[in-house]
Amino acid sequence: MASPLRVLVTGAAGQIGYSLVLQIAKGDVFGKETPIVLVLLDIPPMAAVLEGVQFELTDCALANLTGVEAVTNEKDAFTNIDYAFLVGAMPRKEGMERKDLLAANVRIFKSQGAALAEFAKPTTKVIVVGNPANTNAFICAKYAAGKIPARNFSAMTRLDHNRASAQVAIKSGVTVGNVKNVIIWGNHSSTQFPDVSHAKVNKNGSEVDAVSAVGDSAWLQSGFISVRGVTVQKRGAVIIERRKLSSAMSAAKAACDHIHDWYKGTPAGSFVSMAVPSDGSYGIPEGLIFSFPVTISNGEWKIVQGLELNDFAKEKIAVTTKELLEERDEALAACGESKQ
Ligand SMILES: NC(=O)c1ccc[n+]([C@@H]2O[C@H](COP(=O)([O-])OP(=O)(O)OC[C@H]3O[C@@H](n4cnc5c(N)ncnc54)[C@H](O)[C@@H]3O)[C@@H](O)[C@H]2O)c1
Ligand SMILES: O=C(O)C[C@H](O)C(=O)O
């Protein structure tokens, strides 16, 4: 048997954690053939709950789950890990924007960035789920710099990508497996820009542009993006309003999709949305953790180049970029650093 991958889930006693750990343990992310050791981290007051989750995972009797470790300190959590799902953070409540969590959550990611640098493998790959996800990932990468390359850090916009793909499928009268190349640009926040102008739909066996498959351009420029919040941009707030808890099942599934594709690669001709450090593509300031369309091969992502952006798209991308720059400066101040 190959040596197991060591996979850390932080916030493992929380609601996303509860859905996520089973999906990882049963092979949805790294494949059913890959042995896994799951490391579950939460804060000390959650130790008993965490132990309950550990017991349940053991009771699932999964063939390739070779170990489950429940820990409440960063050294034990981060030592020698291969992948980190950084979920543990405060969720927003009704009426809040995700950036309202910045001051409370950013310090967690400063500390975990330093722990990654000290204890993790230099090849460790990280997805930040805890909100505000892009800015938390920026801070985490900053404090791990010198040990773990910035390109190993990402934030999750796959949930928005999945939400957008599902809406296009419903409007086009197909199942979601027939939709590809939707793009989420920018921040995982209400300024994100869900863009279908490069998306494709397989309708009755032939591939057509999503715009013609949907057949409703007015809806694509308004209702699809945010009609009283029920579609993509503000979907998270609507879930909180209905469930009185933030999305968990769909968030866990999206985190699995994100790491699955990073590990296994994207199919030829397809791209997915992932918030990664900008290299200046599309004029986005370097280093900002920005959601782009990416292709992935051999564990390395590449930003899709050369997509044409019309004035509508450029305007939307400018708004989300401005918000990310403001969040970055606020986060640096909260960490006691000067602005960039
Ligand atoms: N990026 C996305 O698309 C997306 C989607 C859904 C939720 N989220 C975010 O994910 C985060 C978790 O959501 P949830 O619903 O699971 O929340 P939750 O409150 O149910 O669970 C969070 C868990 O994190 C733990 N935690 C807090 N500080 C920690 C630390 N320093 N180290 C380890 N664990 C810590 C808490 O004790 C708790 O068990 C929130 O910030 C939420 O807003 C992001
Ligand atoms: O909206 C939230 O606060 C939770 C999450 O980020 C989501 O998009 O559902």
TrEMBL record:
Source taxon at top rank: Eukaryota
Question: What Enzyme Commission number does this protein have?
Answer: 1.1.1.37
Recorded GO terms, molecular function?
L-malate dehydrogenase (NAD+) activity
InterPro entries, from UniProt? L-lactate/malate_DH, Lactate/malate_DH_C, Lactate/malate_DH_N, Lactate_DH/Glyco_Ohase_4_C, Malate_DH_AS, Malate_DH_NAD-dep_euk, Malate_DH_type2, NAD(P)-bd_dom_sf
Swiss-Prot/TrEMBL keywords: NAD, Oxidoreductase, Tricarboxylic acid cycle
- What is any one of the record's Gene Ontology cellular component terms? cytosol
Record-linked PROSITE patterns = MDH (PS00068)
Name the catalysed reactions. Answer: (S)-malate + NAD(+) = oxaloacetate + NADH + H(+)
Which Pfam family, giving just one, matches this sequence? Ldh_1_C
Any one GO biological process = malate metabolic process
Q: Which family does it belong to?
A: Belongs to the LDH/MDH superfamily. MDH type 2 family.
Protein name according to UniProt: Malate dehydrogenase
Q: Organism, per UniProt?
A: Pristionchus pacificus (Parasitic nematode worm)
* Gene name in the database record: WBGene00118357
